[in-house]
Write a structure and sequence with these properties.
InterPro entries: B30.2/SPRY, B30.2/SPRY_sf, Butyrophylin_SPRY, ConA-like_dom_sf, Leu-rich_rpt, LRR_dom_sf, NACHT-assoc, NACHT_NTPase. It comes from Chanos chanos. The chain is an alpha/beta fold. It contains 31 helices and 30 strands. The protein starts with a helix and ends with a strand.
Length: 927
């Protein structure tokens, strides 16, 4: 080994030792010795995915958890934090390919394919912990040993030197003095990883326009960082940037080769965390059980920091003999967290055991009000890290801040960072938002008008000195709706929660008095419910529903049920609205009798987003919704969930194939699955799928009693396996396999295609038949058809010869304007009355098609449907007689893609016939 190699080895080993010592312990709350835990002993693997969810910048971070839940039931492949620089999978997304295409030509051979990784995640989700785990595993020689140096430059510390000038080597020595003997000329020969943690905390202005290539040139911190990210400085170096979603736009997309997203704990990981955090197994089980009783708390526990807060509160409360009602809302949880921290402070620093919460709060009132003011001021500015100048604004000097962080160790943090300078923050953004709401409510109660001007001021008149609480809450709601990034969402939620008298009583001592705000609560509840929902972004609407929950308003479930029962199929639901609606279903904490996915007018992706609602219903009707094998994975995860209420599931007429059925069987064989009726009619199932079903039923035989496999191709062996299984277990009583055969393996509706011809005995004399009675045209001369009792005499209509039952599908092509119908044979033929016109009576159903719109009619009830942007003149009709549905689809001329227009739901009592009404200068052809 040469002398230079020996020096390099010594520097590397010293660097690893320094990092190991710094990152081997995890501090929950504040970095005090008594709070430290070995990172490897408590670390719980987080769920990290490649790519990102769309629209995240428009949601408050807590509401982005629903997006995380949706990703978990998709086929996204999780990534370990230690693998984020591993090459991309061969199945790259369009986004990834686009990012890689921006790399400079010829560079691929000299550097890894993944150079710059941007990791997003909401506050407290575990970004920094993931960074620490990566560093510790590297320093201890476990992973990524091809990297020579891991250089950690957190933005919160870079802020302290943002006005200074450095060479790259000089900057690194500020953060890693153990590298003082490293020759800067060696940088290009080393594999270096730069970690920029917490971009959202940056107070630097990142300007990517100035170029710098020399590591020895002195420049500003901003220019050094931007050129490292761009690859102008050390192009062979790896870059890892972490940030909250709203800050990600500071890095132009062309400079990142991979985007990952930390979406927190899955359900099993939550339980793993609580069992590691709470040593008493019985107590851990009680905490887990309680968390599961509240959907809101359970979802929040996807955030590791919230798990810690919940464990702190519940562990303390469950130890008490006279435990009162355990918190079920966020406001209750955070209020108890505050009380517990004050109690601990009293015991530790004053050696007093004080149990009266009023006295506890009274003794710390001055401290907490100053912190609350700081929280509110900085929340409005979007800051979660504070410096000395921020503290002075709230009459807090540095010595006070040190005292505060010492006695409020789990609420407010002081950290010594670069050059022993101090930075301050609350332990989590949500704690800051809770304190901010507390401050605003305190000011409201004490009529501090100056502090409330942000919500109440009007340029034309002064702020009134006396005003009811509901005015403040209304203004706060309005402000939150104006915020594009949802900055005030959780703050507003806490503000509504604190307005509840029961929560005010918990805060007595800090608040001078409590108020019975029932009148104000009723008024703000009514205001929220009466808001124009069409004008409210879905994410904001979700948060307003949470505000009702915080005020113990139980109307959430009523709103969901009303929406479901309304059958509001006319409204086109965007992807965001589908997300919001699914979230409403999940948060209602009530079981729906029926969830019919077909009733919601949206895209295929929109329907997939609504799938989580299956988790909270007894009957799920998902037939004909263009679901795929991946959707089966989502449904299977529901079937495996504890206490799942789902008893009837209809997946008919989705091209699931055997692979989708195999996914589904993972749920069916789980002992938690209590499904009684499963319909897989027309799902392209063959004997392979039947084998999977038989195996699943053998593993969990005690519940399923009806399995519909009609319109599939099970084959003799598939039928035999299912029959054997049916004989072996008493619950399964019915397995229909009728209408089977190879023809049923055709995808889509084509397997139900029927050959129709127009009936000359029914055609009106103003209509002309041609092309072998497969085309009808409106003409201006009467045709010389013979008299016939079935001929339409008034309306220009015609029926087909063939009677229709079972499942049937046909397509038509129109020229001009026409009406496409199904009707009973007994419809009247003579005259111009409603009883003769298709769609104007109880015997017929029609879709009127023009170049501007569609109109669906039955028994004189009209539904106007705007044209889809990609409309054509070709219409497909699918009849499922036994299920009582007839559906109309527009068919694109280029891809033959079907787009749903309208579905009629009814109970058919006799065979149906296809029929048509044709307008002047128009025609209809059977395809």
């Amino acid at each position: 080994m040469s002398e230079s190699d020996d020096v390099m080895l010594r520097i590397t080993e010293g660097h690893k030792t320094t990092l190991k010592k710094k990152y081997e312990c995890l501090y929950e709350g504040v970095a005090l010795k008594e709070n430290q835990t070995l990172l490897n002993s408590i670390y719980t693997e987080l769920y990290i995915t490649e790519g990102e969810s769309e629209g995240v910048n428009e949601k408050h971070e807590v509401l982005q958890i629903e997006t995380a839940s949706r990703k978990w039931v998709s086929q996204d492949k999780p990534i370990s934090c230690n693998d984020i620089f591993k090459p991309l999978s061969t199945n790259r997304t369009k986004e990834q390919k686009k990012a890689l295409s921006h790399q400079e030509p010829g560079r691929d051979r000299q550097k890894p394919e993944i150079r710059t990784v941007l990791t997003k995640g909401i506050a407290g989700i575990g970004k920094t912990v993931s960074v620490h785990k990566f560093i510790l595993d590297w320093a201890e020689g476990r992973t990524n040993q091809d990297i020579d140096f891991v250089l950690v430059l957190p933005f919160r510390e870079l802020n302290l030197v943002k006005d200074d000038q450095f060479s790259l080597h000089g900057l690194l020595l500020e953060f890693h003095p153990e590298l003082k003997d490293l020759d800067p000329k060696k940088y290009n020969n080393c594999k270096m990883l730069f970690i920029f943690d917490g971009l959202d905390e940056s107070r630097l202005h990142l300007n990517f326009s100035e170029r710098l290539c020399d590591v020895t040139t002195t420049s500003s911190v901003n220019i050094l960082i931007t050129n490292l990210i761009q690859g102008n400085l050390l192009p062979s170096a790896l870059i890892w940037i972490t940030c909250r979603p709203a800050a990600a736009s500071q890095i132009p997309s062309q400079f990142t080769s991979r985007v990952t997203e930390i979406v927190g704990f899955k359900d099993l990981q939550k339980e793993e965390y609580f069992r590691k955090r709470v040593s008493d197994e019985s107590q851990a089980n009680r905490i887990i059980s309680h968390i599961k009783t509240s959907v809101s708390l359970h979802i929040m526990c996807h955030i590791p920091v919230f798990c810690w807060i919940s464990a702190t509160v519940l562990q303390e409360m469950l130890c008490q003999d006279n435990v009162k009602e355990i918190p079920k809302t966020l406001t209750e949880m955070y209020t108890h967290f505050l009380l517990i921290q004050i109690k601990m402070k009293k015991q530790k620093y004053e050696d007093k055991v004080e149990t009266d919460s009023k006295n506890l709060l009274k003794s710390s009132k001055e401290i907490f009000l100053k912190l609350a003011k700081l929280a509110f001021n900085q929340l409005l500015r979007g800051n979660i890290m504070f410096y000395e100048e921020d503290l002075r604004e709230c009459d807090i000097d540095v010595s006070e801040a040190t005292v505060y962080s010492g006695i409020c160790t789990e609420i407010f943090k002081e950290e010594s960072v670069l050059r022993q300078k101090k930075v301050y923050c609350f332990v989590h953004l949500s704690v800051q938002e809770f304190f901010a709401a507390l401050y605003v409510f305190y000011c409201c109660v004490n009529r501090n008008m100056e502090a409330l001007e942000y919500f109440l001021k009007k340029k034309t008149r002064p702020v009134p000195e006396n005003f009811p609480l509901h005015v403040l809450l209304k203004k706060a709601v309005d402000k939150s709706l104006e915020s594009k990034d949802g900055r005030l969402d959780l703050f507003v939620r806490f503000l509504h929660g604190i307005s509840l008298e029961s929560n005010q009583k918990l805060l007595q001592g800090l608040l001078t008095h409590t108020q019975n705000n029932q009148k104000s609560i009723k008024k703000i509840s009514r205001y929220i419910k009466e808001l124009d929902k069409d004008g409210v972004p879905p994410e904001r609407w979700i948060n307003l529903l949470h505000c009702l929950t915080e005020m113990n308003d139980g109307s959430l479930h009523e709103d969901v049920q009303a929406f479901v029962k309304s059958g509001n199929s006319r409204t086109e639901l965007s992807l965001a609205h589908c997300t919001a609606l699914a979230y409403m279903f999940l948060m209602s904490e009530e079981v729906l009798d029926e969830f019919d996915l077909r009733k919601y007018k949206t895209s295929d992706e929109g329907r997939r987003r609504l799938l989580p609602a299956v988790r909270c219903c007894r009957k799920a009707l998902l037939a004909g919704c263009n679901l795929t094998e991946q959707s089966c994975s989502s449904v299977a995860s529901v079937l495996q969930s504890v206490n799942c209420p789902l008893r009837e599931l209809d997946l008919s007429n989705n091209d699931l194939q055997d692979s989708g059925v195999k996914f589904l069987c993972e749920g069916l064989k789980n002992p938690h699955c209590k499904l009684e009726i499963l319909r897989l009619s027309g799902c392209l199932v063959t004997e392979e799928g039947c084998s999977s079903l038989a195996s699943a039923l053998g593993s969990n035989p005690s519940h399923l009693r009806e399995l519909d496999l009609s319109y599939n191709h099970p084959g003799d062996s598939g039928v035999k396996r299912l029959s054997t299984q049916m004989n072996q277990q008493c619950r399964l009583k019915s397995v229909p396999v009728d209408h089977g055969g190879e023809l049923m393996i055709k995808p889509g509706f084509i397997k139900y295609a029927c050959d129709l011809t127009l009936d000359p005995n029914t055609v009106n004399r103003e209509l002309s038949l041609s092309e072998g009675n497969r085309k009808v045209t409106r003409v201006r001369e009467y045709q010389s058809y013979p008299d016939h009792p079935e001929r339409f005499g008034g309306w220009c209509q015609v029926m087909c010869r063939e009677s229709l039952t079972g499942r049937c599908y046909w397509e038509t092509e129109r020229s001009g304007e026409a009406e496409i119908s199904v009707t009973y044979k007994g419809i009247r033929r003579k005259g111009l009355g409603d009883d003769c016109e298709f769609g104007s009576n109880e015997k017929s159903w029609k879709l009127r098609c023009s170049d501007n719109s569609y109109t669906a009619c039955h028994n004189k009830q009209r539904t106007d449907i705007p044209h889809h942007p990609s409309h054509t003149h070709r219409i497909g009709v699918y009849l499922d007689w036994s299920s009582g549905t007839v559906s109309f689809y527009s068919i694109s001329s280029d891809t033959h893609t079907l787009t749903h227009i309208h579905t009629f739901h009814c109970t058919f009592t006799e065979p149906l016939y296809a029929g048509f009404y044709v307008y002047y200068d128009s025609s209809v052809s059977l395809c």
